[in-house]
Each structure stands twice: as structure tokens, then as C-alpha cells.
Amino acid sequence: MTNLDLLRETTAVMDAYSGGRTSFDELQAKFQSVMSLMERRPETTLAAEAIAAAEADLEYIRFMVFGDDVPGAVAEVLDRLRPQLEDAGRSPGEP
């Protein structure tokens, strides 16, 4: 599986969470899995760091955010992460 495939899978699970088709636990597990599987390359280093930061944010949300505040907090994390994944998934020279 390539780094691009991992980025696509990460985006897909983010979309599934946002659409109510997957759980918080599955979202966090995907982030953890991608962090361990992604090859460290110059073009994906920033994406890997962004995923790690997002996973840390999810861990914080898990233990420190409660009730109705959880979906909004997770949405903020995903909104910050999405552009970074999109940038990493572009081919060199692609706008």
C-alpha cells in the first residue's frame, strides 16, 4: 500500500465519520494505523505529522470533552487536517 493509498483511506474514514457511517474509535484507529504504516518521505512528512497531531487531539477529546461537545471538537480537528492531506496527495506540479 502506497502513501497515497493511505492518505485516500484516511480521507475516506474522515468522510465516513462526518457522515455518521463510522465511529470515533474507528476514526482514531485509522489515524494510529496510518501513522505506523506511512513511509517517511519528504513529500508526505508534513501529512504524517498532521495525522499524528490530529490523533493526539482525538486522544485529548476522548478524555477531556464530553457529551454534545464531542462532534464539534472532532469536526474542528478534521477540518484542520483535511487541507493538509489534500496538499500531500497532489502530484508535483498539480495545483
Describe what this molecule looks like in 3D:
The protein has 95 residues and is mainly alpha-helical. It has four helices and no strands. α2 runs antiparallel to α3 and α3 runs antiparallel to α4 (69-89).
Strand content: under 5%
Can you tell me the residue ranges where pLDDT is under 50 for at least 5 consecutive residues?
Answer: none
- Overall strand count: 0
What is the molecular shape? Answer: globular
Report on the biggest sheet.
Answer: none
Name the average pLDDT: 91
What is the H/E string?
HHHH
Helix content percent band: over 70%
Q: Label the structural class.
A: mainly alpha
* Amino- and carboxy-terminal Cα gap: 25 Å
Note the total helix count: 4
Radius of gyration: 13 Å
What would the keywords be for this entry?
95 residues, globular, 4 helices, mainly alpha
Short description:
With 95 residues, this protein is mostly helical. Helices cover 75% and strands 0% of the residues. The longest helix is centred in the last third of the chain and has 21 residues.
Topology:
Blueprint: H1 3-18, H2 24-37, H3 45-64, H4 69-89
Helix pairs in contact: 1-2, 1-4, 2-3, 3-4
